Amino acid sequence: MQWQLSIYTKLNLEDKTPKVISDHTGILFSASFLSFLDEKAVSYLVTDKVPEMLSASGTMPVFVILTNIKDVPAFITNKFQHRQFTHADIPLNGDIASVLKGLSAEYLIQLLNYVYYTDKHQVITKYNIESLLSFAKSHYAISVVSSLIEQITLLLQTVPQFDTILQLGKLWGKVVYYSVIHQDTRYENYIKQIDAFAASFITSDGMQQATFASTIKNPKSVDRILANIKSQNDKKTALICFDCMGFAEWYLLQEYLSASNLNFTDIALFTMLPSVTSVSRSAIFHGSQDVYNIKSPGRADEAKAFANYFTDKEVRYFTDADIISEDTLLGYDCISILYSFFDDLSHSAQFPPNHSNKSLYFDAVKGYLNNSKVLQTLQTLQGNDFTVYICSDHGSVVAFGNGQKLDKYLIDNFAKRAVIVPEVSADLIEYTKIKIPFVEGKIIVLPEGRTMFANNNQIEINHGGITVEEMVVPYIKLQK
């Protein structure tokens, strides 16, 4: 029996008598339960607004009202039976009222799914709840990865377009995150296929498609972020850039923020070609693709460019070494903050031989976040009425040294996963070459697959290449 059916039976929902149910757990509002009600053809309304309840009471066939309101007015309960759904009503065995109270609806549903999948007669106690929640989380992750891989498999059967590549990047980031955290290696079987799909898009001038489709209101690449922010006309704005945060890292950051009341909306954007800091982060802070000839890219140039873009604002450029407080924000209505710990930790990660995933790196990031003030900073910004946007300049992959390097005289700009060279040198180079959209006289040279121009079999987390993990990054807005 499904746990949804147990609740359905307990609340007597097969009876068509009108009911209003006050949910203390959040379970009844979940997609898992509401989709079950849809399957059972139960007519329901989810609302905390008394006028909507009153309207529903006069417009049958709404038979069930689900609400957070605990004390429903009498003029509603006169027309509807009123039930309270508490933690004691969750269909699990044991002293569940005290053990489960305080858990989020997400964790409760994971626990329900796990227990009903393994042994629905399992007794829940204060002594085994932590281990059961851990097992439930892993069970949930495996089911999520399976579902995501099904979606990705369907995407890979289409012709690669900019929108499918962006969608793929977001889905794949979640697969990598869940797989690494829960030691599920299935995703490694799809890496070559996904990389080939992305490469076929990039090498066929696909980035030009994205550029033409990118608008201020609907950006497709990081150079449009500032224009998009300016179009929102927020009274006070904060842009937080996490260097080297791909979608997998974004989901890791979300896990750290999950205990807060912060809500997010996110979309996927392309980085610049190549996916390196000197190009992509410059494009963010200049609000332009015309960044390939900046003489001294970096923080000083970014601060100046950011201030020049918002000339009508009082602007300040912070880094993660600065203290963000009500005092330091005083007088500014447009700020940026650069966090570099993802990038720093990725480049400093040490890998044993043949280690091909980000688990050690993720452990280091989690340790850093747990001792950081990132959450406190976000809350301080919102508490001082800043609308907060989060972005990244590129992602990363685990790369292996190929033991080869390009001659220095050929190189304009060097990165281990991609090298910019003058176009006149193209015939002297045997590696894959890609033109940079709308940039004359320069091309990108790429090592094969997930290798890098470094000592043979050297293992690093690096970037610059054209995989979706490096090229597709999150752009997030915090909701109040």
Strand order in the sheet with the most strands: 8-19-11-7-10-9
Strand segment count: 19
Number of domains: 2
Query: What best-fitting shape do the alpha-carbon axes yield?
Result: globular
Averaged pLDDT: 93
**Span of the ends, CA to CA:** 39 Å
The largest sheet, given as strand count, sense and whether it forms a barrel, is: 6 strands, mixed
Which architecture of the largest domain would the CATH scheme give at its second level? 3-Layer(aba) Sandwich
What percent of residues adopt helix (DSSP H or I)? 40-55%
Outline:
40% of the residues lie in helices and 18% in strands. With 480 residues, it is α/β, with parallel strands linked by helices.
Report on the architecture of this protein:
This protein is α/β, with parallel strands linked by helices. It is 40% helix and 18% strand. The two termini are 39 Å apart. α16 (341-348) crosses α17 (359-370). The model has no long low-confidence stretch (mean pLDDT 93). The longest helix is centred in the first third of the chain and has 27 residues, at 129-155. It folds into 2 domains: 3-120; 218-480, 3-Layer(aba) Sandwich (Alkaline Phosphatase, subunit A), CATH 3.40.720.10.
Secondary-structure topology with pairs:
Elements lengths: L2 H8 L8 E5 L7 H9 L4 E3 L3 H8 L6 E4 L6 H4 L3 E5 L7 E2 L1 H5 L4 H14 L4 E2 L4 H27 L6 H20 L9 H12 L3 H8 L11 H7 L5 E6 L4 H11 L5 E8 L6 H10 L12 H11 L5 E5 L6 H4 L4 E6 L1 H8 L10 H12 L3 H10 L3 E5 L5 E5 L11 E3 L2 E5 L9 E4 L6 E5 L4 E2 L6 E4 L5 H4 E8 L1
Helix pairs in contact: 6-7, 7-8, 8-12, 12-17, 13-14, 16-17
